[in-house]
Write a structure and sequence with these properties.
By secondary structure, the chain is an alpha+beta fold. The protein folds into two domains: about 60 residues, Winged helix-like DNA-binding domain superfamily/Winged helix DNA-binding domain (Arc Repressor Mutant, subunit A); about 170 residues, GAF domain (Beta-Lactamase). About 40% of the residues lie in helices and about 15% in strands. The protein is built from nine helices and eight strands. It has a six-stranded antiparallel β-sheet, sandwiched between helices. The chain has a two-stranded antiparallel ribbon with strand order 1-2. Helix 1 crosses helix 3, helix 2 crosses helix 3 and helix 5 packs across helix 9. The protein starts with 15 loop residues before the first helix and ends with a helix. About 30% of the residues are buried.
C-alpha cells in the first residue's frame, strides 16, 4: 500500500542497490531458514548479477541483517531488532499486549492483525495454555477473504468499499473446500459481521479449525484497521463455545479501543 502520494518524497527515485537488497532479503525469507548460495540468490532475487549479490550481502552482514553460513547466506538476527521496533511503533500492538496480559492464565491463544491491501498481516500473538499448532506467527499473511480477521476488518468498510477493494480478485483463493470465492457471498458474510459485531471463519482458512475475530473499535490510526482473533478445533466449536470466545475477544477489543 503506497504512502508516497502527496508526501515530500513523492518524486524520489528508489536506489537500485537498496531495491536489490530488499529482493535478496525477500528471497532469504522465502527460503524459510535454508541457506542460499550467491548463485541461488542471484536467481531467486530476479536475476541480480552474482558479484552484486556478494557485495550486497557483505553490506547486509555488517548490519547483521544476513549471516554467512556454509554454502551461502541466511537471514540475520538484526532483522529481529528491526521487526520488534516496527511492531512496537503500533499503539494497538502495545495496547493488545497490555490487555491480554490482564487476562491471566487462559487456554485461548489470541492474535492481533491488521490489513494491508487484500492481506491480513499478523502483528502479535499471545499464547494460551493450550497451544494451537496452526497459530499464525507475527509477520504471516493470509487473504482477507477467507479469514475471520479479514471479514471483521472488511466490515468497517461499506459495501462499495469492499467491492472496490476486491472486485478484480474474483474468484478468491480457495484455501479449503469451505473458502468463500465470490464477492457476493463474501459481502453477505460481511453484512452478518456488522450485525453480530464479530466474524467467524468456519474452516475457510484451514480444515478442522474455526476462528472467531472482532475489530478494534474507534478511528483506525492512519486509516489502518486492526482486529483480534482466536481459534479452536472444529470438533470443539459448539455454539456455546463460539459465543464465549466471541465475548472474550469483544471485551479485549473494547478495552483496546477505550485505551486508544
Amino acid at each position: 500500500m503506497s504512502t508516497r502520494d502527496g508526501s515530500v518524497w513523492a518524486s524520489a527515485a528508489p536506489a537500485p542497490a537498496v531495491l536489490r537488497a530488499g529482493a535478496i532479503l525477500d528471497a532469504l525469507a522465502d527460503a524459510r531458514g535454508r541457506a542460499l548460495s550467491p548463485a541461488q540468490l542471484a536467481t531467486a532475487a530476479g536475476g541480480i548479477p552474482r558479484a552484486s549479490v556478494v557485495n550486497i550481502c557483505a553490506a547486509l552482514h555488517e548490519r547483521e541483517l544476513v549471516r554467512a553460513v556454509d554454502g551461502g547466506f541466511a537471514l540475520g538476527p538484526g532483522l529481529l531488532r528491526l521487526a520488534q521496533s516496527y511492531l512496537d511503533a503500533f499503539d494497538p500492538v502495545r495496547s493488545f499486549r497490555e490487555q491480554v496480559s490482564r487476562l491471566g492464565d487462559r487456554e485461548e491463544t489470541l492474535q492481533l492483525a491488521t490489513m494491508e491491501g487484500t492481506d491480513v498481516v499478523y502483528l502479535a500473538v499471545h499464547e494460551g495454555t493450550v497451544l494451537m499448532r496452526l497459530t499464525s506467527r507475527a509477520g504471516a499473511r493470509l487473504p482477507v477473504t477467507c479469514t475471520a480477521l479479514g471479514k471483521a476488518m472488511l466490515a468497517g468498510l461499506d459495501d462499495t468499499g469492499v467491492r472496490e477493494l476486491l472486485a478484480d480478485r474474483e474468484p478468491f483463493e480457495a484455501r479449503t473446500p469451505w473458502s468463500v470465492t465470490t464477492l457476493e457471498a463474501l459481502l453477505a458474510e460481511v453484512r452478518d459481521v456488522r450485525s453480530a459485531g464479530h466474524a467467524v471463519d468456519d474452516q475457510e482458512a484451514a480444515e478442522g479449525v474455526v476462528c472467531v475475530a472482532a475489530a478494534v473499535p474507534g478511528p483506525p490510526p492512519g486509516g489502518r484497521p486492526f482486529a483480534v482473533s482466536s481459534s479452536l478445533l472444529k470438533s470443539q466449536a459448539t455454539p456455546v463455545r463460539v459465543a464465549a470466545l466471541a465475548a472474550l475477544i469483544k471485551d479485549v477489543v473494547r478495552r483496546m479501543g477505550a485505551a486508544a
